[in-house]
Design goal:
The chain is about 35% helix and about 15% strand. By secondary structure, the protein is an alpha/beta fold. It has two domains: about 200 residues, 3-Layer(aba) Sandwich (D-Maltodextrin-Binding Protein, domain 2); about 120 residues, 3-Layer(aba) Sandwich (D-Maltodextrin-Binding Protein, domain 2), CATH 3.40.190. The protein has a six-stranded mixed beta sheet with strand order 2-1-3-11-4-12. It starts with a strand and ends with a helix.
Length: about 325
């Protein structure tokens, strides 16, 4: 008898065949739960793990595990996007590059949102920005509240918004999408890095880092109860991804995201690489950035937080992984 497992996934092309049943997980039946906003699912999974399997922002995952959450991420990144672009300034601002953010305020949905972690890390590495010299203005509560945000993070009061601050000229920079679509700021926002595309390609050639933004996370009790689940999931997700990439290559998949991945494939190769070794440079960079930005208390070894079922010696770490990190966070 197959066991039903609850799962929350975003609406990604690479999981379409899992959603519609064209690809199944051997020995299991996936029961899809829809959430209007994926960040709400991330927050739930970080705090009380209501789902057997859930896509989760990787920074929230790292923080949750460090706080003792009994969950494990498989090396199945869901979405990829380079992050030199995405932070915008008012056209009238004197900000001309990332370094100019020092001494100013910048808006972000939450301090720990993964897109911001990537951008701050890149700006620090590539443009000599000191993120501690920027006051980060946030709108929403952090997914993991066990660790206080740094002193240069300020949460807006109820009823205030980043969009309103920017419209009044009280905030010069923010991550894209926060200024309010269709607002009077349309046409008044420009990228802080104006040559992001070329910079991203050069950075990838030099570092091999390809920013990831979602991981498949499974509750540890589910993995312990079903030792073969991790491999079954890896096989099924890989097949669904291969089907999706074929639709992209054939021209059947023509949405904006499909076209973006087809273009990325021309210079990154596999636009959605799965596996630990395939993602090691990116995983290491994200862990390093999260630690530098004081989101996690230490830099854990990658193999203790990202599980690849194809590497058998790592299977034994599932039982103790979250206990080790939780202990470290309290020392």
């Amino acid at each position: 008898m197959t066991e039903k497992l609850s799962i929350v996934l975003g609406q990604h092309g690479q999981v379409r065949d899992l959603r519609n049943g064209a690809v199944s997980v051997e020995g299991f039946e996936l029961e899809f739960i829809e959430r209007k906003r994926m960040p709400d699912a991330y927050r739930d999974m970080a705090r009380h793990q209501p789902y057997d399997i859930c896509e989760m922002a990787p920074t929230s995952y790292l923080m949750a595990v460090a706080a003792g959450a009994p969950i494990t991420a498989l090396a199945l990144p869901m979405t990829r996007r380079f992050r030199h672009a995405g932070m915008q300034r008012l056209r009238a601002s004197t900000i001309r590059g990332p370094k100019d953010l020092e001494g100013r305020r910048a808006g972000v949905r939450t301090y720990s949102v993964t897109a911001a972690v990537w951008t701050r890390g890149i700006f620090a590495d590539e443009y000599d920005l000191d993120p501690d010299k920027v006051t980060w203005i946030t709108e929403e509560e952090e997914n993991v509240q066990s660790f206080p945000t740094p002193p240069n993070v300020q949460r807006l009061a109820e009823g205030q918004s980043i969009a309103a601050l920017m419209q009044r000229g009280e905030l010069e920079a923010a991550f894209g999408g926060l200024a309010g679509a269709g607002s009077e700021l349309d046409g008044e926002l420009v990228e802080i890095v104006d040559d992001a595309d070329a910079r991203e390609r050069d950075w990838f050639r030099r570092t091999g880092i390809y920013p990831l933004h979602g991981m498949i996370v499974v509750r540890n009790d589910v993995l312990q109860r079903h030792p073969g689940l991790a491999m079954a999931l890896f096989v099924a997700f890989t097949q669904a991804k291969q089907n999706y990439l074929e639709r992209i290559r054939s021209g059947e998949a023509t949405g904006a995201e499909d076209i973006r991945y087809r273009e990325l494939a021309q210079w990154v190769g596999d636009p959605l690489p799965y596996g630990f070794d395939e993602n090691a440079p990116s995983l290491a960079a994200l862990v390093r950035y999260a630690y530098r930005q004081r989101l996690i208390p230490h830099e854990p070894p990658l193999e203790t937080v990202f599980h690849d079922p194809r590497v058998t010696h790592r299977d034994t770490r599932i039982d103790s992984r979250h206990d080790t990190l939780a202990t470290a966070s309290r020392t």
